[in-house]
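Task: sequence design from structure.
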């Protein structure tokens, strides 16, 4: 599974970090960071390969601008 985070579209609400602090932290610029992710320069988003999505499903649902996606 893969988590996709379109960080450049983040509005900084903090919902992801609140529901899933193991994987999400708010950055100094007010946008969220997916911990351990790498930037996909071609697509312009951050991604993280993961075996168990854990609380990331909650982060995906909590995001008001739908910039978090989990792909099988």
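Answer:
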């Amino acid at each position: 599974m893969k988590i996709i985070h379109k960080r450049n579209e983040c509005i900084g609400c903090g919902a992801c970090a609140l529901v899933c602090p193991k994987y999400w932290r708010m950055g100094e610029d007010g946008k969220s960071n997916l911990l351990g992710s790498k930037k996909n320069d071609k697509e312009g988003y951050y991604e993280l390969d993961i075996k168990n999505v854990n609380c990331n499903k909650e982060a995906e649902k909590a995001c008001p601008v739908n910039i978090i996606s989990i792909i099988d």
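The longest helix spans residues 56-62.
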